[in-house]
Amino acid sequence: MSQPTAQPLTGRLIFEKGTRESRCIEPPALDVPEIDLAEALDGAVRAEPPALAAVTEVDIARHYEHLASANFGVDTGFYPLGSCTMKYNAKVAEQACRLPGFAGAHPYQPEETAQGVLELMAGLADALAEVAGFPAVTLAPAAGAHGELTALMCFRAYHAANGDPRRRVIIPDSAHGTNPATVAMCGYEVTTVPSDARGGVDMDALRATLDTDVAALMLTNPNTLGLFDENILAITEAVHAVGALAYCDGANLNAILGKSRPGDMGFDALHINLHKTFGTPHGGGGPGAGPVCVTDALAPYLPGPLVERRDDGTFGLTWPERSIGRVRSFLGNVGVLVRAYAYIRALGGDGLAAVSEQAVLSANYLKERLRGAYELPYDRTCMHEFVLSGRRLRKEHGVRTLDVAKRLLDYGIHPPTVYFPLIVEEAIMIEPTETEGLETLDRFAEVMLRIAEEAAENPDLLHEAPLTTPVRRLDEARAVKQPDLAWRPDA
Length: 491
Ligand SMILES: *Cc1c(COP(=O)(O)O)cnc(C)c1O
Description:
Layout lengths: L36 H4 L16 H14 L20 H7 L2 H4 L11 H18 L3 E3 L5 H18 L6 E5 L5 H8 L3 E5 L9 H7 L4 E7 L11 H10 L3 E5 L19 E3 L2 H4 L14 E3 L11 E4 L5 E4 L15 H37 L15 E4 L1 H7 L3 H10 L6 E2 L8 E4 L7 H20 L1 H6 L11 H6 L10
Parallel strand pairs: 2-3, 2-4, 4-5, 5-6
Antiparallel strand pairs: 1-7, 6-7, 8-9, 10-12, 11-12
Helix pairs in contact: 3-11, 5-11, 6-7, 11-14
């Protein structure tokens, strides 16, 4: 295997390139009368000229090209970030959302001039309802976590309307951190249930904690170990038996498209991360979308406005009868919705089912290739992702999962999710997605196996990694606590 090669170190800030004296633009000759600005503005002008960057066109082009290529994205290389589903974002969806009718639509435009956008939104809601197995959908939430909050607020309103406010929400110990955060934001208390030896919810522990004070269960299925819960119907039945509601965190929908539906599993609500399952971009805090699907019983509480299909064939906005109100300005991240619709229409029903088949096949292929060199704590057929443990590397060679992740950067691969889920020691959570070819999967497997060998031969190399990136190991806590984001001329 070829050795990783060093990348050039990054340059300076644009303000530090070129001097103020270097003259880079030659404005055209003045064809209007010259005025004295200070006089015209009554002296309200700056004493010193602003410290603007002064660089030539080619230097500007190189500067931004350099910044763009310093970023790692799914268009740069393999990005097997478990739970986050970093699949390739098809460019056809980018083209669709740039069509002038969508890109130029204005939120205050009269309904009759925005029929195309509204029709697309109604079509997307129908498609998601079909995929997820629920009758009602809101497209408003801006992310998965926002969808969770929206759904739990609907649950709260539902229980309050029944005169039965409850206090607790049950969450398995494998859950994503947004789940307990949502519960707390909604004013409920978190009750954690353990996972059993097969990686599913421990049924005895669940039954033991279920009572009429439980408002809901929040469950990811397939779960964050990449495993489909074998007791899913018994779980939702037990939850309903005490009058509680069952919430499905749908971040892992990519595994079950066209195969099984959370609505059919007995869930009452589900959020969908369009930016995970339906090929819309995410990362960098950019816009995503977390539509929420619910049963008929919860539909009256959905946030408004919703798009409705009218009898005369036109589209308009409507408010559910007992709506919790607005959760997002205007109609949500419409550009993201257009991309998701384009993705769904481009693939069709069979195409979506093929996505899941391929995603599950890819994950199982990698799992089988890596299981010797890394420990596999839950040895079951996985869904679209699987979780390894670096526990043995740590015990035998003093190499941690973090070191393995950092070393992957030297091979040009974005590390998988690490140290999540919390129930697996030294966790490495790998999600290859359906969009990667066999060659990429094989290279990743070979790199991971090579790193395991490096751990045995030269553990210090891994402690030092990454060796080839513009910056090495960052103090992540300090970067969060003392962010230094502003440029000051004399700093
Ligand atoms: C990504 C994710 C979330 C949160 O979704 P965002 O869109 O990032 O807010 C919730 N649960 C699970 C399991 C996830 O993977």
